[in-house]
Write a structure and sequence with these properties.
Radius of gyration: 24 Å
Strand content: 5-15%
Strand order of the largest sheet: 1-3-2
Distance between the termini: 29 Å
Largest sheet: 3 strands, mixed
Shape: elongated
Length: 160
């Protein structure tokens, strides 16, 4: 792939003998986000909220307590700049060890939901973009660059 121009502007897509070259758009205004970003935020929030609700229900059904007990509160504290780093008692260390797998499991579940939402959004974006050949597999950065170019092209067509 051939790149030219600065990296701060969206890029205009120009196919050239199987290669794609990019050049900055002259009329791009970075202070105004594209409307598609603003349009889908509410839908994305609703999906994420429903998935997080399902995750919390799952955590409540599969754990003895809530998602964070008093014993686990130390896992979310900032720790500061080294103050309060006194030796933990044997009982506190034992509680910390017991809380860690539960915390790891909850974190892994949240991360799985986040990555799934991220990949779903990329798949939806990819389905809206024209490519040759149509079944060509694109990386995430290629999807984003192609989306920028396609949106710029559509704006150009609308201006005519």
């Amino acid at each position: 792939m051939k790149m030219s121009g600065t990296g701060t502007h969206p890029l205009e897509h120009q196919p050239l003998n199987g290669f794609v070259s990019y050049k900055p758009l002259s009329n791009y205004d970075p202070s105004h986000p594209p409307s598609f970003v603003l349009h889908n935020q509410e839908e994305i929030r609703k999906k994420l909220k429903s998935r997080m609700t399902a995750l919390r229900q799952f955590e409540n059904e599969n754990s003895s307590g809530g998602s964070c007990s008093a014993d686990e509160s130390h896992l979310f504290s900032s720790g500061g700049n080294g103050e309060g780093k006194e030796q933990l008692s044997r009982e506190e260390r034992r509680r910390r060890r017991r809380a860690t797998p539960k915390y790891r499991s909850a974190h892994a579940s949240r991360e799985r939901v986040r990555v799934e939402a991220f990949n779903t959004a990329f798949a939806e974006l990819r389905s809206l973009l024209p490519t040759l050949p149509p079944d060509k597999r694109l990386s995430k950065i290629e999807i984003l660059r192609l989306a920028i170019c396609y949106i710029a092209y559509l704006n150009h067509v609308l201006e005519r």
